[in-house]
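Tutorial handout. Part one gives the primary structure; part two gives the three-dimensional structure as tokens.
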Amino acid sequence: MLLLTPTFMEYIVPQCSMSACYSKNASLDLTVEELKAFLGIIIVGFNTLPNLRLFWSTDINFHIEGIGCMPLKRFLKIRFLHLNDIKAQPQKGEPNYKTHKVKPIIDHINKTFRLLFQSIEVFGS
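Part two.
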């Protein structure tokens, strides 16, 4: 939570919802709490099972504690996160064409690292 701050989470939520409406004509109605649960599932389960759906298996061999905090159908609905306005995508050859989709998180993490480093310098010395 030091890197993905509440402010940044609040920025991501409407971007995801807007993207769902624009690309799929579907309402996502994502909340910050759901986003946190989604990211937690990704972090806890990253590369531990060969198939995404196995996270929700009732089989004791595949069960991962805490994954059940979100139903599989809801997880699948929000699994395509968007960090930037899908309609504002630059055209090929324009500045930021290749980084447009991830630029907000790169900028946010760079800023957060600087702030964390400065606080370590102040309190660590």
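Part three, for discussion. The longest helix spans residues 103-124. The helical segments are 6-24, 32-45, 72-78, 103-124.
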